[in-house]
Design brief:
Layout (H helix, E strand, L loop, with lengths): L1 H29 L2 H10 L2 H14 L13 H11 L2 H19 L7 E3 L1 H15 L2 H9 L7 H20 L4 E3 L1 H36 L4 H21 L1 H23 L3 H60 L3
Antiparallel strand pairs: 1-2
Helix pairs in contact: 1-9, 1-10, 1-12, 2-5, 2-12, 3-4, 3-12, 4-6, 6-8, 7-8, 9-10, 10-12, 11-12
């Protein structure tokens, strides 16, 4: 009977530990803006933004014809000089702080500011206009920009293309509705789950102690076994959690961006970058689990072996007592 009760407690402990593990993973990562910045850097988010904006500018637009095929790499170099790592880091920290305010219901909007970036692109173009002929040649080639008049006309056409492309990008994207729809109930759910699960774990430990109150060695063994099984269960679901988590997060972010700003090939490039970022976020969040789970597993093994040693010692004591001289 005690074995059955201990096994049921073991299963409950493992399931509750999984709930604690997932809740801690989600909540700890969600509140750390530095972790999000690191994930963005690791996933190549800056390059994805550069590629997206480059495609957005060079894509065929019948309303703004160009004199010749444009040099994509020249456009990309200009955008890359504007979309810096520092700008991206500031933007991510700003979005994270605003999203946190929406979650705590102290603010209604979580704004992605794009006006500063658009202005920087315009300033970069104005620098190019200071040397029209060389800039024209870098964009369209020497054949098209053979004289000053043609070069100036080509650069005017490019300015119009750039202006129209920037006009299609909003000055700001408000992610507040998406954050409000998902984050507050989700965060509340994880917080409640964490509290309930921790309470359940304490109850399981108390039950285990009550079942084996007369056998300290066996109680230690079951404590250790509960911790080891819980650790193995949590580690086994990391892979599945990554797959499910990155798909769900990626799809929601892609939908949010597509609904606000982009379409066509630039939208597909952005979607690929967002999915890479989502995969990196989930990978980084679950990678932290090793720092939490491995010590728990080590403590479990310590309890397990300590319990076995204690029981062996208790079995040997009567023999030693009988062998002792009167």
């Amino acid at each position: 009977m005690r074995a059955i009760a201990s096994f049921i407690t073991l299963v409950a402990f493992a399931i509750l530990s999984l709930a604690v593990f997932v809740s801690v993973t989600v909540l700890e990562y969600a509140k750390d803006s530095r972790a999000l910045v690191a994930s963005a850097r690791s996933s190549g988010t800056r390059q994805a933004i550069v590629d997206t904006l480059t495609e957005h500018v060079v894509a065929d637009d019948p309303t703004t014809p160009l004199p010749s095929a444009i040099n994509r790499e020249a456009v990309r170099a200009g955008i890359e000089s504007v979309v810096t790592e520092e700008w991206l880091d500031r933007t991510i920290v700003s979005i994270h702080a605003a999203s946190g305010s929406v979650v705590e219901q102290t603010e209604d909007r979580a704004v992605v500011p794009l006006h500063e970036l658009k202005q920087a692109v315009v300033v970069r173009f104005n620098v190019l206009e200071d040397s029209v002929e060389s800039s024209c040649q870098s964009l369209f080639g020497q054949l098209v920009c053979g004289d000053a008049e043609t070069a100036a006309a080509s650069m005017r056409a490019y300015r119009l293309r750039l202006t129209r492309a920037l006009e299609r990008i909003p000055d700001r994207i408000d992610l507040g509705p998406e954050v409000r729809a998902v984050a507050p109930p989700t965060i509340r759910l994880w917080r409640v789950a964490l509290g309930v699960a921790i309470g359940g774990l304490v109850a399981c430990l108390v039950v285990t102690l009550a079942i084996h109150r007369r056998d300290a060695g066996r109680a230690l063994q079951w404590f250790g076994l509960e911790l080891v099984v819980a650790t193995l269960l949590c580690l086994s679901v990391v892979g599945a959690a990554r797959f499910v988590g990155e798909h769900a997060l990626g799809q929601r972010l892609v939908t949010a961006v597509e609904s606000h700003a982009l379409s066509g090939e630039s939208s597909r490039i952005a979607a690929r970058g967002i999915r890479r970022l989502s995969a990196q976020i989930v990978a980084d969040a679950t990678r932290r689990s090793w720092q939490f789970l491995l010590p728990v597993g080590a403590v479990g093994l310590t309890f397990l072996f300590a319990g076995r040693a204690r029981r062996r010692q208790e079995r040997e004591l009567p023999i030693l007592d009988r062998a002792a001289p009167a």
